[in-house]
Amino acid sequence: MPQVAAPLRRLLPLSQTLAPAPLLHLSRRLFAFSSPSFGRPSSLLALAYRGQPGRRHPQPRRGSSTLRKAPKEEMAGGGSKEVAFNRKRAEGNDGRQRGSMELKTRKLNPVNTTCYVQILGTGMDTQDTSPSILLFFDKQRFIFNAGEGLQRFCTEHKIKLSKIDHIFLTRVCSETAGGLPGLVLTLAGIGDEGMSVNIWGPSDLDFLAGAMKSFIPNRAMLHTHSFGAERNASQPKDSVIILDDEVVRISAMFVKPRYHNGAGSFNDIDLKPGDTAIVYACELPEIKGKFDPAKAAALGLKPGPKYRELQLGNSVQSDQFDEMVHPSDVLGPSIPGPTVLLVDCPTQYHTAELFSLQSLSCFYEDSLDQRESGKKVNCIIHLGPSSVTKAVDYQNWMKRFGGTQHIMAGHEIKNMEIPILKGSARISSRLNFVCPQLFPSSGFWSVKPANDVMENDKSTSSEACGSVSAQNLLKFHLRPYAQLGLDSASIPSLFTYKDIVEELVSEIPEVREVPEQVRKFWQNNANIKNIPPAGSRMLMVEEPWIGQKSDKLDDGSQKHPRDNQEIPSCVEDATREDMEITFLGTGSSQPSKYRNVSSIYINLFAQGGILLDCGEGTLGQLKRRFGVNGADEAVKSLRCIWISHIHADHHTGLARVLALRSKLLRGMPHKPLLVIGPRPLERFLNAYSTLEDLDMQFLDCRNTLKPSVDAFLSENVTGSATPQLENTMFAPGSRMENYNRKPASPRDTTAFANFKEVLQESGLEILYSVPVVHCPQAFGVVLRASEKVNSAGKAIPGWKVVYSGDTRPCPALIDASRDATVLIHEATFEDSMKDEAIARNHSTTKEAIEVGTSAGAYRIILTHFSQRYPKIPVIEEVDMEKTCIAFDLMSVNLADLPVLPKVLPHLKVLFKDELVVEEADEMQEAAAVY
């Protein structure tokens, strides 16, 4: 494939940014304005219309799994200026001193404003985050709550995150704010100066802001506004007005828990950060009565600008008489403006405070205040869990609002039947159909038909008058007033696994044969372990894989690939309960439609599990793979979490996992979870633990280098081991010396004692970190299982798994990967982009395979693909005999490693008509709406 033009590279997603970098199409959104063809650059037209009659398109390359022709970079305004994501600015390395990022200011339009609230269903299928709510005006955007996965959901549905002005949190915790770091850093890289957003929340927000500053380099990226610490005496004691402009007034009401413990309810002194929940009231201005031109003329006014001033509520001077004309003189009776309440009542302990809020009394149908003010709540969105909102006392409280429309957005059983990320669910289901051995059925597909679950919920979900269950993208219109009410037009159509399979077979009829072919690999696994004779018939795809020359025999059968490597004894004697690797995120930089950011779950079955990296959305991916209950069990049985480096696409899902584990194990005997990571991560976790109980113990990666671990395990060390750096990449005179001039400080001996217990309980002989070339304090990791005795009484060496993290190929990692059973290596860039890989300290596909080949690894699994390869990466002229491409939610069992490379060619049939250039198509479509 030809070298991609250098200017285009600056537009690609960047995994070296500190967070889920920008949405793919945001950095290209101005492409649309440089082409006369309805926003589609002419250089992409041929590719976009590939295969259509009358359209010109390039000839496909032979022997390649995917095609890619790089579009030329388009310039906005006739080619004078680039529009790209500014990686250096997002990392805080652009060298410019700025007091603030650009905060968007928009000219408001109080007349004829379009306004609605909309459900952004983040977390509803997996129940790992609170749903987000969009309050939309034609000149302003507000989002309430920003849980993990918000960017990914908005990418798929083209929600304009770049247009958001304010984010409000109903609570300050990982459930409601886990997506904030990624969103903040995304906005920081957009435009000429970067963008920022106002973030509002109770005083607990200060704890979150302080923690985020541990890894967000430019403090100007954070514009946080906490409220509630000091309240204005002129306002009700339980409410504060946050925003009041021409189009909306937003006020916050405080709801605190009350625990009854015999001695009465506790007071504010007993409150913990994160306990306070917020009810937001969004009140639109009153709707002016109809303007009467006849009355205006009678009062001496001429048609013109004064008519509009009166409609806006301003008095004007009469053109004919010496008197002022007031709006009430020419306007009919006003109508109270629509009002929306967002109610977050997270536990039953918050209900008493909620029911007694003085600030809500003006909205109750039976109250004197309501009759005097005429205020009416048109819509209430309930964010609390169904276990709270379906209680009798809560339902009775809802009835006090009269005929208000209630939208129940809390988690319910049926939410699991409707996958939020349809694109990802569709790909996972197709892969499951072709190869269920590697892609087990996702946790959100119910054993029973979805209709049964929906039917069972009907009786309870509509107990309150006027209540409906929330659905993704459900709207409630507020303006224009004539459209007031629910709007279901945007709700995505539902689908089942059966629907997806029928669609697949209809599109690709030959795929019918593939599941049976793949099944025979597992059936004949014992025979495949022993390399068959050259003339034997093997089930391989008709088309050679990834540029290999065809090696067909005379009878038309396919030769077995030239895999002469002996099967390791740990694999030959493996059971299905030894070890399994599940890829929870295989993309780089930012969550995308098809690939989440980095996270790998090592399932040790009865001996627990280990997470390697924990990017945003890790918990949601666990629940998609194992189901809600299965994921909870996996979280409870975690032995440790290892983080490769401080870039946020590798660790911003950590707080959510730790907080859930702490909650699940509350009241049960357990130990703090060991977190191994770079030192800057400890500062974030310590700061964040003030907000939520993380119940963890930290160990610096520099204290887990091989010399330190060997010394600690070989000697009965009572003190902490200090890393020996002489033989590492941090040694004096090395390339990485400037990153760490001092060794890690000695740690608490309890952390090392915990580390040793983790190894024993996990059945590991050793776990150690390996310095790699990427950024300051970046590491890979080696896990080696203890030896076991097989049924014949023979001692079998344990398996060895090596994970590279993000890195350039480096000798330290090659040495650490010697004779690895599995090497999981990043392959961010295609082979033609080696210069980019070098510049950003990443690896190309070929380089990653060469690392594994030179180290003698039995199997190589590639991951961390650039988001420009949404489904399958570009791979050319590569020997795939021992290599596999990772997909999200793929599970690789130790016992299945011999057949792993042989299955990959069969997966290719799923993508034969879905080229990498498809992402460019999506980019252009997105640009049209941005």
From TrEMBL:
- Its Enzyme Commission number(s) read 3.1.26.11
- Keyword Calcium part of the UniProt annotation: yes
Positions of region (Disordered): 50-99, 549-568
Q: Which reaction does it catalyse?
A: Endonucleolytic cleavage of RNA, removing extra 3' nucleotides from tRNA precursor, generating 3' termini of tRNAs. A 3'-hydroxy group is left at the tRNA terminus and a 5'-phosphoryl group is left at the trailer molecule
Q: Which cofactor does it need?
A: Zn(2+); Mg(2+); Mn(2+)
* Highest taxon of source: Eukaryota
Q: What is this protein called?
A: ribonuclease Z
Q: How does it assemble?
A: Homodimer.
Q: Which GO terms describe its cellular component?
A: mitochondrion
For this UniProt record, the keywords arranged alphabetically read as follows: Calcium, Endonuclease, Hydrolase, Magnesium, Manganese, Metal-binding, Mitochondrion, Nuclease, Transit peptide, tRNA processing, Zinc
> What broad class describes the main subcellular location of this protein?
mitochondrion
* Any Pfam family the entry gives: Anti-Pycsar_Apyc1
| InterPro entries according to UniProt | RibonucZ/Hydroxyglut_hydro, RNase_Z/BN, RNZ2-like, tRNase_Z_dom
Q: Which GO terms describe its molecular function?
A: 3'-tRNA processing endoribonuclease activity; metal ion binding
Q: Which organism is it from?
A: Urochloa decumbens
> Which CDD domains does this UniProt record tie to the protein?
RNaseZ_ELAC1_ELAC2-C-term-like_MBL-fold (cd07718)
Ranges for domain tRNase Z endonuclease come to: 123-179
Look at the named UniProt entry and state the broad enzyme category this protein falls under. Answer: hydrolase
**Keyword field contains Membrane:** no
